[in-house]
Amino acid sequence: MPTPIRLRDLIRNIRAAKTAAEEREVIQKECAEIRNGFREEDNIFRCRNVAKLLYVHMLGFPAHFGQMEVMKLVVSPRFTDKRIGYLGSMLLLDENREVTMLITNSLKNDLEHSSQYVVSLALCTLGNICSSEMARDLAQDVERIMRNGPAYLKKKATLCACRIIRKEPELIDNFIQLVPSLLNDKHHGVMLAGVAFVTEMCNISDEYTDKFRRSVPALVRMLKNLIMSGFSPEHDVSGVVDPFLQVRIIRLLRILGKNDGSSSELMNDILAQVATNTETSKNVGNAILYETVLTIMGIKSESGLRVLAINILGRFLLSSDKNIRYVALNSLLKTVHTDMNAVQRHRSTILDCLKDPDPSVLRRAVDLCFALINDQNVRGTMRELLIFLENCPSEFKGDVSSNIVISAGRYAPNAQWHIDTILKVLTTGGNHVPDQTIPILIHLISSTASLHSYTVSQLFTAIKTNNLHQPLNQVACWCLGEYGEVLLSGSEYADPVQPEEILKSLNSLCESHLSSAITKSYAVNAIAKLANRLPSHLMPSIKQILARYGTSMNLELQQRSVEFSSLFNNHDDKRPGILERMPLFEKSEEERIYSEANDPAQGEKVVPAVNTAQQSALDDLLGLGDIGQSTPAAQPAPVMNSSNLVDLLGDLGMNTAPPAPQPAPVAASSIPSIEPWCDDTLGMKMDFQKVDNNILAINMTITNSSLAYEVSDFSFLAAVPKQLQINLAQPSSTSVSPGASLTQQMRINNPNKVALKMKCKMSYKLNGSPVGPIDQVIGNFPPSAWE
Amino acid sequence: MILFSRQGKIRLTKWFHSVPDKERKKISRDIVNTVLQRKPKMSNFVDFMGMKVVYKRYASLYFCCGVDQDENELEVLEVIHRYVEILDKYFGSVCELDIIFNFEKAYFVIDEYLLAGQLQESSKKKVLHAIEAADQMQEEDQEQEVTRSILEEFGLT
Predict the structure, then answer these.
(1) Among partner residues A128, A155, A163, which is closest to B121 by beta-carbon distance?
(2) pTM (2 decimals)?
(3) The pLDDT value given to residue A659
């Protein structure tokens, strides 16, 4: 067998390859050679082969077949083999591989090796790939080295212990008594590891935080020694003695001093000393200062010290170095809720950061701006944020828009400003504006009657100039539908508008290919509603537009179109009532989240975690749910007598998804409705309401879902178990035309609270021919109906 | 920790958490893309999948560390810088080619410098001393081999 080529030669060959394909070819050929070498159990060149394989692996090629060879190298007595073998095991294996079972044994042997460099390799590998099993098997060996080993191994063993306790927290007790000796060591590596180890334990459980509060004086002394000690070339970084150790001690002090007055007091002096004496011309010094500031703000420190910390951050903010500005914003963001007023002083500088080109800086500046908004500065800050919204990268637009809406809702000085702000969001945020804001704005507009004509004319101008923004279009459609007539007379804000022009704009929204289906639905609704308020000569064109979507592929749009056409053509007398202006609707759940979640205590960034069930916007549109429920109250007569009207409305009502805001009568009953039965023609739905403790009222709705069958002579009889009594009222009608429905009330008296069951018999005529009787047992009543 | 060139070629990756191979590839690729897109006047920190990536460019090579949200970014920059200094001393004014051709040495240096994702030694001298001692042992291995092969040649074994 020929001698395999050397690693350096392989690398040279790969680099010489001119194309990716050529490179792949070289590598595949070499991999085949390496496999051959492995197969022939070539002991002399195994090390070289594995090293080559590791290089190939780094380039992204599969190298799993080398795992067993790595294990063989690890057990070899040669140091070179071991070194490459352990390197390979760190790169090729991770803790989840089964091979790690094998490596545990080798590690155990090598942890007892006489050469500290072999032990070091084993510790290093353990620290990087330790799994729970390995942690349990090797904890004792690690502990032994932490106790007796030389400093070189002690630090490594301690860091291994960090990993071990992270995997298996119950092993902490093996190590905990070693901590004082680690912290008292003179070797910086051991101190670093010791501090890291204590930090790790405190992160695992508060129990240890309490325990290690005792070490605060020792840590303070350690830090003091570091600062006081003169120049030490070994640990010096541009004139600062071991900044790494300093930063870690200061961080640990933060954890220990959190919410603890007495240990915080012990730290005050040293922190003040660090904060004032650290050289700030270099990055190192700033790193220490940054950590110090965070600790000062994180513990119960003196107020003077806090002022000092905020001033340091103020200085950071003005720095010309991007990184320093970034950390300043980051730490201000962490402290803004504890020291609002102090941070407030830097508001203008923070606003300046909105012009930064770096998204990492921007993200923090924006969050901070929102956290700082209050009643006094809302106008100024919002102005800046709106400018920012206009120019910012698109990934920010969604968040910023919704946060502006939230803040505007909380701090708006007056309604006009509020409406202006949100309109600006809609026009500049465009399609990035989250859907949830639409109902909020609609609610806001409808509740400020004095500004209707202003708002509507603003919206109308906006959609005439640019109709690409769906959220804006939707709000505009809603408002035109409700208040479009104010445009006709003109006002101080705008000249009179011809009714044709309004209709044309809405129609163009309908026709535009850029409009979403939801926008089109809004527009169709608006046109229908305007029919009431525009001059009657426009009626034919309105009807024509409405009818156009009768064949739309979009279900929602088609249904609306068909329903409105039927309303206009068949029930024109009812139309004015139905298309009456909407009453002010209740705020929906989401809006409440928007307006209430923004409690400053809860965090600077309110992420509206609202899962818009399907299309909440559509539910709110025209408040279809509200019409269905509020009209019966307003006009009781037609509901009782004309089943058709009820049908139409009932149907509309059923389209609204359940999460829609449901006003009182339905929402009051906590018993879920059931749909016990349906066939091709008819569907049955039962709503329940507890009248008193024993009596349950059932409202049954029978809906004719067919397209052409006329149902007549409908009769429904029901029987219940003996312990119950049933009282059946007359149905609202005995005939149901296509798409319509009838209702029938019943009351069940259930004094013994037995499980509800019902046997029923139905018969009806379908286009004159009798159907049934159909026997049906209904057993799926919700338990809350009788409990 | 990832080292990669300006062309996006990965030169060295070191993971301190166990992540499946496939994901490792994806994460490294994403980090490389994110970092390469950034302009020189931006800060050295990027938010990436819930963690922060701290990066610094040295000549043609980018050094990247993915760290937790509450890490001190400025200090991580120092940690990276310290590593570069150590490499520099070890190789004698390091360049990208040194790392390509001696990638295993670059790993050995990391392993003396960081462990389990933590800094293990802040003294450059100690790190270098440890590596040199280990290299010495490796050379002794080789010398033994050479002696053995000479002995074999003369038929003395």
Answers:
(1) A155
(2) 0.69
(3) 37
